[in-house]
Amino acid sequence: MEGIPMLLLTLALWGYVTGSLAGLVCWRREKLANLFSFGSAALAALCGIGASVVCLAGSATSFEIRWEFLESAVPYLKFSVRLDPLSAFFLLIVSSLGLALSIYSFGYARSFYGRKRVAVLGAFYNGLLLATTLTFVADNIWLFLIAWEIMALTAYCLVSFEHEQPETRDAGVLYFIMSHIDAGCIILGFLLLFQMSGDYGFDSLHGLGAKMSPGKRDAAFILFLLGFGIKAGIVPLHIWLPAAHPVAPSNVSAFMSGVLIKTGIYGLTRVCFDFLGTPPLWWGVTLLAIGMISAVLGVLYALMEHDLKRLLAYHSIENIGIILMGLGAALMFLHTAHPVLAALALIAGLYHTINHATFKGLLFLGAGAVLHATHTRNMEEMGGLIKRMPQTAFFFLVGAVAISALPPLNGFVSEWLTYQALLQGFGTTESLVRLVFPLSGAMLALTGALAAACFVKAFGISFLAQPRSEHAGKAKEASPSMLFGMALLAGACLLLGLFPTHFIRLMDPLTHQLTGQQLSARLSLADGLVLASLARDTGTVSTLGMVILSACLLPVPFALWLVFGRNSKTRRGPTWDCGQRALTPQMEYTATGFSKPIRMIFKALFRPRREVQREYDFSPYFATTLRFESHVEEVFERRIYRPARILIIRASRRIRAIQMGSIHAYLLYIFVTLLLLLLFAI
Amino acid sequence: MNLDPVATLAQAILLLLLAPVLSGLIKTWKATLQNRRGPPIWQPYFDLLKFLRKDMVISEHTSWIFSVTPYVLFLTALAAGLLVPMVSARAPMSLFGGVLALVGLMALGRFFLALGGLDPASAFGGMGSSREMTISAIAEPAMMLAIFTVAITAGSTNLSQIVLASQGPGWKFLDPSRALAFTAMFIVLLAETGRIPVDNPATHLELTMIHEAMLLEYSGRYLALIEWAASIKQLVLMSLLANIFFPVGLAAETTPVAFGLGLLFFVAKLIVLAGAVVLVETTNAKLRLFRVPDLLSAAFILATLALVSTFLFT
Q1: B contacts of A450 (beta carbons < 8 Å)
Q2: E strand or H helix at A623, and its extent?
Q3: Is the pLDDT confidence value at A624 over 90?
Q4: In this structure, are strands B56-59 and A570-573 parallel, antiparallel, or unpaired?
C-alpha cells in the first residue's frame, strides 16, 4: 500500500507548484489565471485527501512511509517527507479544507478582476498550501523550518494582499513580527533537541526526551510552547490573530483560521507526544490552563466584536483553547500512566481540530460571501440577508450551530468527547490537581454557552430582520462555485456530526502511534450508531439517534395541528410597533446592544468606556445631533504589548550609540567579536 | 439494546400530558399564597387548545427561521425528556444520550428561540434574546459543575446510570456534596425555567421580561407549541432534580404495580418541588437584571463546594 500514497502526495505537492507557476504564466489573462491556479490547487488537494485517506483507512496500527521527493545537492538538506498517522491526519485537514476553498475561490477571485492581480493571489495561495502541506509531512528539521518560513512569508503576502488600506499594512507587519518571534523560538527548541540527537531527521528525535536532562527538556517544552503557541494563537500570544485574519481575502482568512493555526497544534502534538517522552505533570496542567484561559477570553472578546470577520477570528482563539484542553488532559494522563484515557483525550482534541477546520472554514467563507455582497464587515450595517442570500444564510447557520457545540453537528461531538475525557480524568490521581478537570469542564460549559450567545448575535443581527443599510438591502446571492465550496464544508460538518464512530476509526493508527492504544472499537456501540465513552455505562451519545428520534416525534405537532387547527388561517401582518407609525431598521436591536449584558457582567475585564455627545436646543431628550462611542479595553495590548514596544524602542535608542559611523570603530567591533569567538572555541 | 418503543411512547405521552398541569399547579398555588383566586389547574390545557385553534398573524419581516423555531423547540424539549428517568430508573432513550446531550438539546432549542426573537425586527424580541442568552451562559457553568459532581460519584454521564448508582447502598439523604449540588441545581432550575427571582413568567411589561419578550410576535399554533415546549422543559428539569437527588420509589421491575407506584412517587416528588418553587416565587422579588449574575455565581460557588466536598467527606 506504500506506493499509492507516495504517488498521490507527490502529485499533490507538484500540483501546488504547478498552480503557483501556471497562474504567473498567464499574468494578464485573469480568467485563465483564476482557472489554472485554483483548478490546480483543487486537484492537488484532492490528491492530498486521497493520500491521507488511503493511509489512515488502510491500516489500524501505526505506519510510516518515508521517501525523498526531490534530490538535493545541498549537504544536510534532504527533501525527505514522511507519512505517519499524525502527518496523514493533518494532511487530511489541510487537503479537505484546501479543496473546498479552491472551489470557492473560482467565484471569489472574480471580485478582484480589474482591481488586483488574480495571478498573484493564486500564486501565493498555492504557495501557502504547498508550504503548509510540507510542514505537516516534513521528515527533518531543515525541511520543516524551511516550510514553516515559506508558510509565514506567503501568509504575510496574502494578508497584505489589499495593502492599499493602512489597517491591512499594520496587520501584515504585526503578523510578520509575531511569526518571526515564533520561528525563533522553534529554531532554539530544535537546536536543543539537535544538541542531544546529533541528527536532523525526525526519526532520531523520537522519544528523545528520555535522554535529556529535565532542565533542558523543560526549556525545550517552553520554547516550543511559545513558538507553536504564537502560531496557534493562544492567549496572551494571540494579538496578531484578530488583526491579520480579518484583513486577508476571505478564502485566505478561512485557510488561516482553519489550517494555518493548526500547524501550531501539529507542532505541539508532534513535539510533546513524539519527541519529548513521558511528560512531567506541569506540562499537561499548563496546557489545560492555557486552554481554559484562551477558550473563555477568546469567546468573551468575540462577543464584543461587531466586525464579522474579527468576531470569527476571536472564535479561533476560543477553539484552539478547547483543542488544547484535550491535548493538556492527554499529557496529564500520559504522566499518570493512563494511556487509554490519554488516547481518549487526544481523540477529543484532534477531532475538535478537524471540526474547527470545517466549521470555521465554512463560517469564514460565509462571511466572505456576505462581505462580497454588502461591501462591509460591520454587522450593524447588515441585516435581512436571509431573504437576499438564502443559501449563504443556510450554510452560515449550519456553521453557527456547529461552532456553538449544539447537537447534532460536529462541534457537539468533539466537545462531548472532551467532557468525557475530563470527567474520567478525575479518578486518575489522588492529588488536589484533579480538581482542575471538573473546573475546566465548567469553563468549557461557559465557553459553549457564550459561543451560542455570540452566534445568535452574529447570525441574528447579520442575517435576520430588516436590512440595516442600503448595501444590505441590495445584496445578491453568492456565485455557484462559492456556494458549492460552502456546501462541501457544511456537508462535512453534518457527516462528522452524525457519524463520529466511523470517523474515529480513521484515528486508530494515530492513537496507536502516540499512545499505543486503539479505541475505535471501545467507542462504538450498536454498529456505530452510538458513541460510547470507553464503556457503555460511563456515558453514551448518538447524534444520529437524536435526529431519528426527533423525526419520529415530528408527527406529534403536525397531528395536533390537523386535529385542532384545521380551520385556522395564517396571515402576514406588521410587527408590533407600540402604535407608532412604522418600524424602521434603526429601531432594531443592534449587535452592540445584544452583547451589552455580557459587557456589563464582565466589566472588570472589558473596562467599557463610552462617550455620548448631544447637542440640543431646549431639552436633552430632544437632541438635534447625537454622537455615541463605545470602547472595550484590550487588556493584553495595553498592559503587555504597548509597554514592551516602548521598552524595545527605548533600548534600541541606547544601543544606537555604538553605531557611530566611523569605519575604524566597526573594524574594532569585528576584531573583538572574532577574538571572543576564538577564545570561546578554545 | 434498551430501546423500548412502548416505554418511549408512554414517556412521551406522560411528558405531553403532565407538563401543562404542572405549570397550572404552580400558577394556582402561587395565587392562593398571594390571597388571590387562581385559575383552575387545568387552565393550561384550555389555553393550549385555544391557541391551537386560533388564526396566526406572522410578521412580514420574518424568514423561515421564525416558522421552524416552534418545531425545533418542541422537538428538542420532547427528545430531552426521553433521556431522563421519570417513572422507572431506566429512561427509554438513555442510550442516545446522557446529561450532556440533555443540556445540548435544550441549548439547541434556546438557540433557535433566540433567533426567533430577533427575526421579526422588533426591539423587544432582541432584548429578550440578548438577556436569555446571557443568563443561560452564566447559568451553564453552575449547572455543569453540579452535574459533574453527581456524574463523578456515579462514574457516568448517563442519567439512568446516575440514578441507579444513587440508589445503591452508599446513598445518604443529607450527604453534604449532594445537598450543595442540589441547591445549586435548584437555583439553575429557577433561571432556566424563567422563574422569579430571575425572570417573571407573569409579566407583560416589556422592559422586565425575558422569556416572554422573545415570544411577543408568536401567535396561534406556534405559540401553543412554544408554551407547551416551555412547560415540558420545566417538567424535564424538575424530574431531573427529583430523580437524581431523591431516587426513591422508581420502578425497578416491569410490572404494572411497580409502574403505578413509580408514577405515584414521581408525581409526589414533582408536587413537593413545585411547592418549593412556589414558595421561592412568592417570598422573593424579581432581581434586577444585573443582580442575577450574583445569584448564579452563588450557585457556581455552591457547586464548587459540592465538588470539593465529594472527596472531603468520603
Answers
A1: 137
A2: strand A623-631
A3: no
A4: parallel
A670 touches chain B (CB under 8 A): no
Closest-CA distance, B66 to chain A, in angstroms, reads 10
At A460 the three-state DSSP class reads helix
Q: Which long-range contacts (C-beta less than 8 Å, at least 24 apart) are formed by A578-587?
A: A583/A466, A583/B61, A583/B121, A583/B122, A584/A466, A585/A383, A585/A465, A585/A466, A585/A467, A585/A468, A585/A469, A585/B121, A586/A468, A587/B121, A587/B122, A587/B123
Res B314 pLDDT > 60 = no
Chain B nearest-CA distance from A74, in A, is 56
pLDDT digits (tens, 9 = 90+) for A643-664: 999 999 999 999 888 888 889 9
- Residue A27 in grid coordinates: 499574468
φ, ψ for residue A201, nearest 5 deg: -70, 145
Each residue's pLDDT tens digit, B57-85: 999 999 999 999 999 999 999 999 999 99
Residue B201 domain boundaries: 5-312
**How big is the A-B interface in CB pairs under 8 Å?**
276
- Kind and range of the H or E run holding A179: helix A166-197
CA distance, residue B208 to nearest chain A CA (Å): 14
Of B39, B20, B4, nearest to B251 by C-alpha is B4
Taking the model in full, what pTM does it have?
0.95
Query: Which three-class secondary structure state does DSSP give residue A535?
Result: strand
The three cell numbers locating residue A344: 481518549
Which residues have a Cβ under 8 Å from the Cβ of B230 and sit 6 or more positions away?
B77, B193, B194, B211
How far is residue B54's CA from residue A242's CA, in Å, rounded to a whole number? 50
Best residue in A396, A428, A437, A446 for a mutation probing chain B (most B CBs within 10 Å):
A446
The 3-class SS string of A360-382 reads HHHHHHHHHHHHHHHCCCEHHHC
Question: Which of A446, A526, A538 lies at the smallest CB-CB distance from B140?
Answer: A446
Residue A461 forms contact with B (CB below 8 Å): yes
Cα B178 from Cα B245, distance rounded (Å): 7
Q: Is A24 strand, coil or helix? A: helix
Cα→Cα distances A353→A28, A138, A327, A516, B223, Å: 39, 20, 11, 21, 40
Strand, helix or coil for residue A81: strand
Q: Is A450 on the interface with B (CB under 8 A)?
A: yes
Buried b (16+ CB within 10 A) or exposed e, A203-231: ebbeebbeebeeeebbebbebbbbbbbbb
**DSSP string for residues in chain B:** ----HHHHHHHHHHHHHHHHHHHHHHHHHHHHHTT-----TTHHHHHHHHHHHS-EEEETT--HHHHHHHHHHHHHHHHHHTTS-SSBSS-TTGGG--HHHHHHHHHHHHHHHHHHHHTT--HHHHHHHHHHHHHHHHHHHHHHHHHHHHHHHHT-S-HHHHHHHHHSTT--TT-HHHHHHHHHHHHHHHHHTT-TTT--TT---TTT-SHHHHTTT--HHHHHHHHHHHHHHHHHHHHHHHHHH---S-B-S-SHHHHHHHHHHHHHHHHHHHHHHHHHHHH-PPPPGGGHHHHHHHHHHHHHHHHHHHHH--
Number of domains in chain B: 1
List the alpha helices (DSSP H) in A336-479. Answer: 339-374, 385-388, 390-403, 410-425, 436-463, 470-473
ipTM of the complex: 0.95
For residue A594, which of B127, B169, B269 has the smallest C-alpha distance?
Answer: B127
What are the residue boundaries of the structural domains of chain A, listed by start? 278-558, 635-681
**What's the rounded Cα separation, in Å, for the pair A351 and A362?**
17
Write the burial class of residue A110 (CB in 10 Å: 0-12 exposed, 13-18 middle, 19+ buried): middle
C-alpha cell at A620: 436633552
